[in-house]
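Researcher: Let's try something more involved. This one mixes different molecule types, so please make sure each is placed in the same coordinate frame as the others.
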Amino acid sequence: MTGVEILFALLGAVAVAAALLVVGSPNLVHAALWLVVTLGALAGCYLLLTAEFVAWVQVLIYVGAVVVLLLFGLMLTRAPIGYSAELTSGNRWAAAVVAGATGGTLMTVIVEAFRREYVGLHGGVAGASRGIGETIFRYWVLPFEILSVLLLAALVGAIVLSRRTPDEARPAAGATVGAPGLAGGSNGTGRPGGGDLTDTGTGTETGQANAAAPTVPAQDDDRTLPVSESTGSQGGAG
Amino acid sequence: MHLLYPLVLSVLLFSIGIYGVLARRNAILVLMSVELMLNAVNLNLVAFDVWLGDRLHAGQVFTLYVITIAAAEIGLGLAIVLLVFRQRETADVDALRDLGERQYEAMLEPDRGAR
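Model: All components are placed in one shared frame. Result:
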C-alpha cells in the first residue's frame, strides 16, 4: 500500500462510518451533522484523486449549502430534536436485504472488472481550477448554460411551491391552534376547498376536535384579513 | 493508487444510501440518503476521469453539474416536504397513503379501514 492508498482507506472508513450513522442514527439533527462528516471525507477523497476544484466545490455547496438547507427543513417541519425511535420504518429488514443485494452485485462486478487497474496520480494535478475552467468554457458551454436555466426553473418552482396563498394558510393555522394533538392525522375540515385532500380518515373524537377547531380562530382570521392580504403579497413563506 | 479503492467506497456509500431511502420514515432523512447516493456516483465519475486521463475532464465537469443539480433537487424537495407538512402536519413518508389501495390500508391499520 502506498501512502496515498492508506490515506484514502482511512478517509473512506470515516465516510462509510459516518454514512452508516446518517441512515441509522435515532436523532435527526445528529444524522444531518454526520452527513457533514461524510461529505467532508469525500472532499478529502477528491483531493487525493487530484480533483482539486471538485473538492472545494463539494465543500462549498454540499457542506455549506445543502446541509444548512436540510437543517432548515428539519426546523421548519418541527422535527423532533432529541432521541426518537420512530425514524426507521418497519420494513428495515427488507431495505437491508435490498441494499445488501445491490452492494454485493455491484461489488462483484466491479472487483471482477477492475482488479488490475491502477490510477496514475503522478502526471500532475488533473483537476486544478485552471484546467477545469478552460474545459468548461471551451467544450462544455452548452450544458453549462442549460444548467443555469435549470437552476432558474428550480428556483422559481421552489418559490411557487412554498408560497403560502392567503386563503389556504389561515384555516390550517387555526386548526393547528385549536387542536394541537392532530400530529398524525389531517387538519381537515377547517380548510375551504381542500376537502379532496384531507380525507385520510379520523376517529370520532378527532373529528369533533376538527369541527370545533375553526370556530374560535376564525374570528381572529376575519379580523386580520386585510393585514395579511397586504403583507402576504410578497409570498410570506416560512 | 489502485482503482478499486474509490470504486469500493462508492459501492458502499451507494448501498447505504439505498438502505436509507427505503428504511427511513422522515422525508428529510430520505433526501439525505439520496444525497449519499449522488455522492457515490460523483466519486465514481471523478475516479474514472482520473483513471482515463481524460483530456476534456468529462468526469469532473459532469461531477460539478451533478453537484449543482443536487442543490436544485434539495431545494425543490424541501419545498415539497414543507408543502406536505403544511397540509398534513407531518413529514412522515409512511403516513402519506392517500394513493394507496384501500384494501391494503385496511389490512395495515384495521381501525382506519373499518369506517
